[in-house]
Amino acid sequence: MSTVLTNSEGWKALEKHFVEIEHTHIKTLFEKDKNRGQRLTVKDLGIYFDFSKHRITDETLDLLINLARDRGLEAKRAAMFSGEKINITENRAVLHTALRAPKDSSIKVDGHNVVPDVHEVLDKMAGFAAKIRNGEWKGFTGKSIKNVVNIGIGGSDLGPVMAYEALKHYTDRSLTFRFVSNVDGSDLAEALIDLRADETLFIISSKTFTTLETMTNAQSARSWALKQLGNPSAVARHFVAVSTNEKEVMKFGIDPQNIFGFWDWVGGRYSMSAAIGLSTMIAIGPDHYHEMLNGLHEMDEHFRTVPLHKNIPVIMGILGVWYNNFFGAQTQAVFPYENYLKRFPAYLQQLTMESLGKHVTLGGEKTNYQTGIIYWGEPGTNGQHSFYQLIHQGTKIIPVDFIGFKKSLNTLTPHQDYLIANMIAQGEALAFGKTTEEVRKEGVDEQLIPHKVFEGNRPSSTFFLDTLSPENLGKLVAMYEHSVFVQGVIWGINPFDQMGVELGKVLAQNIIPELLDKQKPIAHDSSTNALIEFYRQ
Ligand code: F6P
User: Fold this and answer.
1) Ligand 1 pocket check: which of 211, 262, 348, 507 to mutate, most ligand atoms within 8 Å of Cβ?
2) How confident is residue 1, by pLDDT bands cut at 50, 70 and 90?
């Protein structure tokens, strides 16, 4: 096998195949195979995954799976699950799957079984969450906690806020949850505006405990709390931390007892099932939290064991490569037809784009092919009245993931039927469109016909589940995590580092003193200098 992806036999076979089917309409594929809608589906773990409305044939799938296999998917998957240091640029294992492994399993990093450590933290989280939920944990003035504020950014925010919103139905409504991430002071100010310090708990979530945004917000929250509570020892009752950096946490004044740890083998964007999920556990309770972990684990097992042709994350991953590298798709849309999943696309943006936005291979060579696609989305049906026009009749190809649930968590007739009818109809309209003849038959004025034609042939996947339970949320999260892995393997890049976020951080650190001290000489480019001068004035 050539190590250069585009020189490999598998790639070349796909290039040839692409030319053959590039212009084949999804409608034709359905006409040729009356069973396609049933056949190109996977039903497992209560997920009905329909991938029939894609611009693929059986041969496409075979070729893509061969490519994945040739790129070493199975061996690399095994290496990840077994704790090998596959994050080679950071010399780290990648074991978010260990965070949801059953108690009796054994997964070793450097010869040490990490599963007992994981469960020790989970038990500690459960004990703490129970105390907050039942009012046993008292603040500095003896009051129970009514508000929980998670301060974190990136993976230390997006997972918690997404899970909180997604599982709101299961949350304790007597508690108020707020999530602060932006270094823009308005974020913190608005989060605290109606809260009292004596009944507020801050969870400072930061893997490194050095992130500028989080540390700035944490210090301001500390000042806000101490202004009301008057005594530095109050910090220990109102601040806890989720971090791998005990030393820095203790410097902040947090009681070491109240540090919930995790490990360098958990990437930030893969950490919502680590202690970063503390706010989630307080919100939904330990039992529901464990259901979510079960869902994650079930999908891990599906990914690890199910043959590639029936493996949901594998199919998602290879379809990603197909559209990105062969059809030249620039973006992938995710439309949950479930309002509680409103933050799911934002969560997926970090997961997918921080993971797959790489232009060099693991070997350090610049890729001569496209990698990570742009993820975006909004809950249906809102998007239909906004940007769907471009997907239906625009000039770009945008593969869509529809996510829907049979049962609503709020049974308000006829809402659910309308919602799901819309989801199903959108997939149908995108794939099959409406021809000139069909429009003409409706008696439409000749001049208007071109405007009313829908070309169709727009690809989509549909993920249909029973209801938005903690377990099903877990399955969806792990499903996307592993689809990212599949794409990373095919492209030969490292989906587990994020060096691309560093430069901006370093430059900001240079500019901060230049904003604070107006006399400080500045020596950037002319544009940067002018912007700094404008701010200084
Ligand atoms: O800047 C990117 C990043 O490193 C993300 O990968 C991470 O999720 C986020 O910052 C937050 O980092 P931390 O948890 O260390 O504060």
Assistant:
1) 211
2) very low
